[in-house]
Amino acid sequence: MDTQKLAFVFPGQGSQSVGMMSAYGEDAEIRRTFDEASAALGEDLWDMALNGPSERLSLTTNTQPLMLTAGVAVFRCWIARTGRRPDMVAGHSLGEYAALVAADVLALSDAVPLVRLRARAMQDAVPAGTGAMAAVLGLDADVVVACCREAAGDEVVAAVNFNSPEQTVIAGHAEAVQRAMALLAARGAKRTVALPVSAPFHCSLMRPAAERLAAALPAVEFRRPAIALINNVDVASPSEPDAVRDALVRQAAAPVRWVEVIRRMAELGAGCVAECGPGKVLAGLTKRIDRNLTGVALADAASLEQLAQQIGVE
Question: Which residues are catalytic?
Answer without folding.
Answer: 93, 202
